[in-house]
Each structure stands twice: as C-alpha cells, then as structure tokens.
Write a structure and sequence with these properties.
Blueprint: H1 3-8, H2 14-23, H3 27-36, E1 39-42, E2 52-55, E3 61-66, H4 75-87, E4 92-95, H5 102-112, E5 116-119, H6 121-131, H7 141-154, E6 158-161, H8 167-176, H9 185-197, H10 202-205, H11 207-217, E7 220-223, H12 238-256, E8 261-265, H13 271-284, E9 290-293, H14 305-319, E10 323-325, H15 338-358, H16 364-376, H17 380-385, H18 390-398, H19 416-423
Helix pairs in contact: 4-15, 6-7, 7-11, 8-12, 13-14, 14-15
C-alpha cells in the first residue's frame, strides 16, 4: 500500500505520527489531509531519510537546486553544495545535472543526502540520446519510461514531469506570442518532441503507466509547469492557465491512483499578481500543494535574484504556496557557486519563515520571540546562535571595535536597550 492508500484506510502510521509532531499537527488531522491530497508526504520507500511534508497547515519548505552542466561537471562540488544547502536549512535537494555520469551523481547524492531528493528525468533522457548520437526528439515512449523507472529504482523521492504540455497547449503557445517564449528546459523538450513527432506527449497520453511506476516505489509526482512565464510580460497568460487546468485534472487522476502529487508554478510574476496565481492554482488543482520558483517579481535583478525571489516567495507563501524553490544570485547568469547556494537557501528560508508567521504556524513566531528576548537581555551568544545564519552574524560581531562587549558599535554608549531598562 502507498501512504495515500494507508491514509484513506484510516491507518495512522509511524511516519504520520513523526510528521505530525514535526509540524505541530494532530496525527488524525494530518492523516485526513494526506488522504484527501492537500498534504503530500514525500519519500521513496527505498530510503530511510526524514520525510518531506508539504501542504495545508504545514511549515513552508525550501528546495535547493544543484547539478552539473556542460560548462562545469564536478561531482565533489555538487556534493558540497548539497551539504551547504542542508546545513543552512534546505528541506529538499533537486539534482538537475545535465553532464557527466548522471546515474553515479544521483547514487552519491542519494547515499549522502539526509533530505528528500528530486530529479527531472527528461534531462537524463536528453543526455542518453546525445551519448547514443541520437536526438531526444527520436526517443520513444518506452525510452522515456525506462529512465523514469530507473530514477525510482535508484531511490529518488520525487520527480518533476511535464505531463501538462500537450498538443492542445502547444497550439495555444503558438497563439499567444510570448515575449520570452517558454523557459522550462523540460517543458521545451516535450513541446519540441510533440511538434517534431506530431504525436501526443507520452507522459500525458500514458499517465496511468507513469502513476503505476510511481506507486510501486511511493514516489511523489511534481507536475512541472512547462509554460511558466520567464518574463513579467508573459505572466498569467492563457497558455499558463490552460496548462494549469490540465494539471488540475492530472492531480485528480494521481489521487485516484493513490500517488502523492503536487504542482509546480511560476516563475516571473508581477508582485500584484502573485496572490492571484496562488489562488487560481489552489482552486483549479483542488488544494494540491503548490511548489513555486520564486516567484521573481521583477526582471531587472540578475546578480540579486535571490532577493527578488524572496520578495515573491514571502507573498506567495502568505497566499498559500507550500514549497519554495530557491533562486541564487547567479540565476540567469551562470551555474551557482557554493556561496551562491548558501545565499539562495538563506534568502528563501527568510521568505518562508516570514510567510509562516503570517499564516499563524504554531512554531514560527516562537523563534522570533526567543531571539528578541536574547536581544533585550544583551545575551549575544544566545542571540547569535538563533540567527538564520549564525556564522555570518558572528563574523560581524567579531569585527566589533568597541571594548565593551555588551554593546554594539552602532549605538555604543547610547544603547537604546540599556537606556530603556533604566526607565522600566
């Protein structure tokens, strides 16, 4: 039985109890949400890591993308990016490698990563085709499903699959005349495959086959948004919404097959449209957990896109998004460095935490109250230990020129905290 089947049968597993305790929820309440699909617990049944819990009333989670490319393929560096991401609070890692021995990279990550791991199997399909001196456009449905099953067998916890890119949505894409076209790598591969072969997307046409594979390993499906906007000009257009309608139907089919499913979303979205995007998704996809890239709320910030994404992520989280994919300062420019990865994770964590407070998550505000008490007590050691990035905060503190360690160099003898205490 998959965990969804167990939840529908009224079974409260040890996994449900563990997740409920972590989230501050009643186990029976969590079981009901898993049964109706508004919460998804993500973990391949071949792995023993802590499960990833996404959805209604849970803490907003963070994903960090890593992976090799044709310009840089160093497995040790990617493993270090994984370790840095987890250290700074990433709840999941996605391996988006497109160069090197992809199976070996996944194996190393699965063996060493203590959190959930996701992949985009289409990337490996493209690499395999290239290695065989073929075009990915010549791959058959069987070729695609073989790669998908191999990822499941290897222990991947969730798969991003662009099942909503269909012949119909490709025709719609041609009509809308976007400024930035389509910017999803996986989505464009499927779009081009449809255009070249004049056939329906196998991941859509044989969706039941896909769900049967995922159910065998209890792998969650992350329904990729192949037509996510890559520029503000294209946000919330007809092709994006049409794909979302298709994804809503696919959510229902996955739930009927007892497979955990969540939905991916934009992308580049103006700030005033972020809330509407979340509400539309939650309505069309029957409250499935929503996984957003950012959103990035302006196009002008390469080099600072982790900030742009954190602004959008906080608003999206407040409106109901459940899972934020980090964006690093290197977005749109190059493969992120280890420092970029750290900065991206921390920016997204701040956004998620701010949104958790606004949503009234029972554990969120306690952290803020605790660090505030440490500040008022001028308990620097405790305050620094509670920071989202203690290493950076401590480095600033150590640079203090003052001889009085109870003070900071900004206020010095005019410390407002010390002076206010003299009045109380």
């Amino acid at each position: 039985m998959t965990r969804v089947e167990q939840a529908k049968a009224g079974i409260i597993t040890d996994e449900i109890k563990f997740a409920a305790q972590k989230e501050g929820l009643d186990p029976e309440q969590l079981r009901q949400h898993v049964a109706d699909g508004s919460i998804v617990i993500v973990r391949n049944n071949l792995r023993t890591v802590e499960p990833l819990t996404l959805g209604t009333k849970t803490r907003i989670k963070i994903n960090a993308n890593i992976g090799t490319s044709s310009s840089l393929s160093d497995i040790e560096e990617e493993l270090e990016k994984m370790r840095v991401s987890v250290k700074h609070g990433a709840d999941a890692i996605m391996d988006l490698s497109t160069a090197g021995d992809l199976a070996a990279i996944r194996k190393a990550l699965i063996e060493q990563c203590p959190v959930a791991i996701g992949t985009v199997p289409l990337y490996e399909m493209a690499v395999i085709a290239r290695q065989n001196e073929k075009s990915i456009l010549d791959l058959s449905a069987d070729d695609m499903f073989e790669v998908i099953e191999n990822h499941c067998k290897q222990g991947v916890d969730f798969l991003t699959l662009h099942c909503g890119v269909t012949r119909q949505s490709v025709e719609r894409f041609k009509e809308v005349k976007r400024l930035a076209g389509a910017t999803s790598r996986g989505g464009t591969i499927i779009m081009e495959w449809i255009h070249h072969n004049k056939k329906e997307n196998p991941l859509y046409e044989q969706y039941d086959r896909l769900l049967d594979i995922c159910a065998q390993y209890d792998v969650a499906v992350s329904l990729g948004d192949g037509f996510r906007p890559g520029a503000l000009y294209d946000a919330t257009d007809r092709v994006q919404i049409e794909e979302l309608i298709i994804l809503g139907d696919l959510v229902k089919k996955a739930r009927n097959k007892n497979v955990g499913v969540f939905v991916e979303g934009p992308g580049h979205v103006p700030l005033h449209q972020v809330k509407a995007n979340i509400e539309i998704q939650k309505t069309l996809c029957n409250n499935a957990p929503f996984y957003v890239l950012g959103p990035l709320v302006t196009d002008i910030s390469p080099g600072y896109d982790h900030i742009t994404a954190a602004i959008g992520g906080a608003v999206a989280g407040m409106a109901g998004a459940d899972f934020l994919c980090y964006v690093t300062p290197a977005e749109h420019l190059r493969l992120p460095s280890i420092d970029d990865v750290r900065d991206g994770v921390i920016a997204s964590r701040i956004a998620a935490h701010a949104a958790d407070i606004s949503r009234g998550h029972p554990k969120a505000i306690k952290w803020d109250h605790e660090i505030s008490r440490a500040k008022i007590d001028l308990n620097w050691d405790k305050m620094l230990s509670l920071c989202v990035d203690p290493d950076k905060a401590q480095a600033y503190r150590k640079s203090l020129p003052s001889n009085d360690e109870a003070l900071c160099s900004m206020c010095g003898e005019f410390c407002a905290i010390k002076r206010s205490k003299s009045v109380q």
